[in-house]
Design goal:
By secondary structure, this protein is an alpha/beta fold. Helices cover 25% and strands 29% of the residues.
Length: 233
């Protein structure tokens, strides 16, 4: 991993001539994103993220923390929060921003001895599952990290709107595999990251996966564009 996403975050934090991040998927054209967006304050966050932070309680784990904006908000409000990411550069930026407890790790490698009351997976939290097939492995790992009355707050989007419809109104989704399984590619400052799988789950599919793995799953809030926030417990 070249850690280009993290490099962009760190460049912005240390004012090292940051540029826009360019992302593309196997079903969408290249799209530019200002890295400044990852440093947004609570008032500039989407309603789904604000709601997740409002619902957070107790000892909290922020998975895929990026620039640490969610962790920082909770920390400033008195929470014991640990921020983790697989990006060393992103975690370095989090430390520079003042996030006290950070760790460079994949969630699957995190020690299950420590339990959390709230686990946050935001900005398409289901993405880290990679593929539908891997979902069970991740849900079981997440379950092992939860305290007895703990909760997982996770968001995603139903990508069905990105597919064409035939004359009968049926969506022309891939015959093989699940339509929310994408291949993501990141470009930054002329470099290209190795492509990686990234999963978007519609709510019903997430709910079914949760029930199969011993979770209750409730729909907390729906966004303006096929996105939603769910609570697992």
């Amino acid at each position: 991993m070249k850690d280009l996403f993290g490099k962009a975050i760190l460049d912005y934090q240390i004012n090292n001539s940051p540029e826009d991040i360019v992302t593309e998927t196997n079903i969408s054209e290249a799209d530019e994103m200002s890295v400044a967006y990852l440093f947004r304050s609570y008032k500039d966050m989407p309603k789904l993220e604000q709601k997740a932070l409002q619902l957070s309680k107790g000892k909290t784990l922020d998975i895929g923390c990026g620039a640490g904006s969610h962790a920082l908000y909770l920390q400033k409000n008195g929470f014991d929060v640990t921020a983790i990411d697989i990006s060393p550069n992103a975690i370095e930026a989090c430390k520079l921003r003042g996030v006290k407890k950070t760790l460079v790790t994949d969630i699957l490698n995190l020690d299950s001895d420590e339990k959390f009351d709230t686990i946050l997976l935001l900005m398409n939290g289901t993405g880290i599952f990679g593929t539908l097939k891997e979902t069970t492995k991740y849900l079981q790992k997440l379950k092992s990290l939860l305290s007895e009355k703990g909760q997982i707050l996770i968001d995603s989007s139903d990508l069905i709107y990105m597919y064409d419809q035939d004359e009968d109104g049926a969506y022309e989704v891939p015959v093989n595999g699940y339509y929310g399984e994408l291949t993501f590619t990141v470009h930054y400052k002329g470099e290209t990251e190795n492509s990686f799988p990234w999963l978007y789950l519609d709510y019903n599919t997430l709910q079914n996966a949760c029930h199969a793995n011993g979770f209750q799953c409730e729909l907390v809030l729906e966004g303006e564009h096929f996105d939603y926030l769910a609570r697992l417990y």
